[in-house]
Amino acid sequence: MSNLDRQATLSVCGGRGFVVAEPVRELLAPRHVQLGESTEVRRLLPNLGRRMVGAWCFVDHYGPDDIASEPGMQVPPHPHQGLQTVSWLHEGEVLHRDSLGSHATVHPRELALMTSGSAISHSEQSPVPHPRYLHGAQLWVALPDSHRHVDAHFEHHATLPRATAPGLTATVILGSLDGATSPGTTYTPIVGADLALTAGADVQLPLEPDFEYAILAMSGEVHVDEVPVLPGSMLYLGCGRTELPLRAESDAGLMLLGGEPFAEEIVMWWNFVGRSNEEIAQARSDWMGGDRFGEVKGYEGDSLPAPELPAVPLKPRGRVR
Ligand code: MN
What we know:
Layout: E1 11-14, E2 23-28, E3 31-35, E4 39-45, E5 56-66, E6 74-80, E7 83-91, E8 94-98, E9 103-106, E10 111-115, E11 120-125, E12 133-142, E13 153-157, E14 162-165, E15 168-174, E16 176-177, E17 180-181, E18 190-197, E19 202-206, E20 212-219, E21 222-224, E22 227-228, E23 234-238, E24 243-248, E25 252-259, E26 265-269, E27 272-274, H1 277-288
Antiparallel strand pairs: 1-26, 2-23, 3-4, 4-5, 5-12, 6-11, 7-10, 7-12, 8-9, 8-11, 10-13, 14-15, 15-18, 16-17, 18-25, 19-24, 20-23, 20-25, 21-22, 21-24, 26-27
Bound molecules: manganese (II) ion.
């Protein structure tokens, strides 16, 4: 999915001033964002209280939605730069097409990882026909300055490594967890994992003390470090942990997001990550002019126009909180 917000705001994110060095338990409420006519998502990042977790800079949780009699996800071609997109499903299917000619149907717990480098465009749709329910998360990873102009590429990893403990199956999406390493390409020290807990599970998840972490709850009743986290909410955990207590009252689905705190400041607007206002304005102008971002072949319909840039230019940021 993408940022379809017509009043896209500029955000400055990153920088170590945001990072909490010690373990904390900071509950982040979602912002409800309407995408198109029928889909509402819960946006966890960027959040008023927190902009990034490691290099993770954008997190939307959507569904489960009954789309039996609806078109489901319909995101027209739109551009990206300076980031990687991670599509993660618990239910349903998504058909991905991009300007490199990729064409992939993504199923639950498969990794669709698109590295934009300096330019790519893609569309995402529920296929026809499609399963009744759609439930997943759309996430972005900011690319560091050293690699933000790499060649665009798309990876579809249908099989991912798993780590298990009694009551827990962890699927490693990016990076490593408990000795299991994802084949997905990464550019900063980062981890993403899907955590499937069975009712009654009471486990300690091994963590890296140098990483900051958050847990996104997607389904079920779960306590994360003794804090109840409802589906559609995120608990920020700070740094300095070697393990994380997880307790499930029912079968539950979570995502673990973490990484080395992202030291660079980035500018995010609409579907672009850059380093300055000027760069963002140039990206908008290139997309609207049909330059640089390529063409998504096979998509029936118009591309997504960029919203207007905010009238007030972005100022260098102070702390967000
Ligand atoms: Mn997108």
